[in-house]
Amino acid sequence: MLPAWFDRLVISGDIVLIASAVIVVEAVLIALFRKRLRAPMKLLLTLGAGFALLGALHAALSGAGTVSIVVWLLFALTCHTLDLTGRLFPKPQDSGRT
């Protein structure tokens, strides 16, 4: 059984804000070290999709309207589609990079 504070953290949606903050820190680190990474934009698309899914979860947990949830999900779908397109159909100069 989880402690009461953890239940409050989840039910309020605050746990989503914590996870979102972690993703923002990851994005900043990727931006700072982009020259050392193989494909920083691909990583940002993956993070964008995850961030958007967290946004949809937070919207749902906090009682936001359907439109807000759908907008977050569409953003996640867009990031995910761009990420998959880049992985399935890499540009010739990107071959060998993941």
Give a quick summary of the entry.
74% of the residues lie in helices and 0% in strands. With 98 residues, it is an all-alpha fold. It has one domain (10-90).
Explain how this protein is built:
This protein is globular. The chain has helices at 4-12, 14-32, 40-61, 66-88. With 98 residues, it is mostly helical. The protein has one domain. The longest helix has 23 residues, at 66-88. The model has no long low-confidence stretch (mean pLDDT 89). The chain crosses the membrane at residues 15-32. Keywords: Membrane, Transmembrane, Transmembrane helix.
Short descriptors:
single chain; mainly alpha; transmembrane; membrane; transmembrane helix
Q: List SSEs in N-to-C order.
A: HHHH
Largest sheet geometry:
none
Shape: globular
What's the number of helices? 4
Overall number of domains: 1
The whole-angstrom Rg is 16 Å
> Whole-Å distance between the termini?
40 Å
Structural class: mainly alpha
Low-confidence stretches: none
Strand content: under 5%
Average pLDDT across residues?
89
Secondary structure tally: strands = 0
Percentage of helical residues?
over 70%
How do the helices and strands line up, and which of them pair or pack?
Elements: H1 4-12, H2 14-32, H3 40-61, H4 66-88
Helix pairs in contact: 2-3, 3-4
